[in-house]
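Re-run with default settings, no changes from the original entry. Doing this only to confirm the output is reproducible before filing.
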Amino acid sequence: MAAEGTILHADLDAFYASVEQRDDPGLRGRPVIVGGGVVLAASYEAKARGVRTAMGGYLARRLCPEAVVVPPRMSAYSAASKAVFEVFRDTTPVVEGLSIDEAFLDVGGLRRLRGSPLDIAARLRDDVRTRVGLPITVGVARTKFLAKVASGVAKPDGLLSVPPDGEMAFLHPLPVERLWGVGPVTSGKLRARGIVTVGHVARIGEAALISMVGQGAGRHLYALAVGRDPRPVQVGRRRGSMGAQHALGRGPRTPEDLDAVLSELVDRVTRRMRAASRVGRTVVLRLRFADFTRATRSHTLPRPTSHTPLVLATARGLLAASLPAISQRGVTLVGVAVGNLDDGRTVQLELPFDGWSGAELDGALDAVRDRFGSRAVTRGTLLGRPDPVAVPLLPD
């Protein structure tokens, strides 16, 4: 008999939009779009009209003219996320956060205390609804991949358990795009050869897949299609980078405009790093051009840091090197990330360290902003400019 499925994938439904509907009863049951220039989130009422995350605001409002457009409230979303993760950790100590609104939980060994995995999942959904006021979908399965697919199929506000003896019956009829790693390019290659379901991927075999999509991707897709995913839920897993990005729209931007955006992004990222006691070595600049192509530039520092001026100087150098391409092609999005993160509490300080250090100054500014708001202390270049629109970083 196959082992019982004890992995849960818990995923909040239309997270930002759900928080807005929770906090404003007048928005409940109505189509809600978070973000004006770019859609950061859409309620399911708006999704039913074709609105999607990362869609331009003009197109979204044309598809759903009756939608209520609200500005993002990142502090509210962060608070809601923390509350939900408290529910996760009250359910089981084995929690692996994937993003602000989803996590894997391993509930193996809790049957005598809390019941079956399906019972635990149902109680988790009730607890999130009662304690945080948000809908959440949960998938239950033997592997991480199957649990995530189950939650995707069960959305919105659902619960789906995949029994070990019914895995292939559940998985194989699904479209090939349900496999992790199948984006538009890979999907096009597979569908051009008549491979449209996960079952087709399993039946065609690993060797044929490798010849179509390459060795790494072929082995990976075949393993998932036949139910192989040995990855455990990793407790305390910490992200390898922290970043933020800003949608600019399609209008022209001067170098001064871009520097102001870059400064604000670096301030935000380094503040988050210090709050999490993280330091990093690799500064990454991401650009999306007006022709929808993308570019990434990076520079690795000799030692890890979370010092804002040092990260900003590095990011400015990367931006300066990109200005010729920006002037030719235009730019619609700027992103900054710091990678190669380490624990900031274990980093060797440099000598001399007497006097008022940059780290102390950063900490003092963080304290002022925590108490009086993120705009209480700001850069001169940002005065008179509208608050930037944050866009969630998409995985590489």
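Confidence is low (pLDDT under 50) at residues 349-357, 389-396. The two ends are 38 Å apart (CA to CA).
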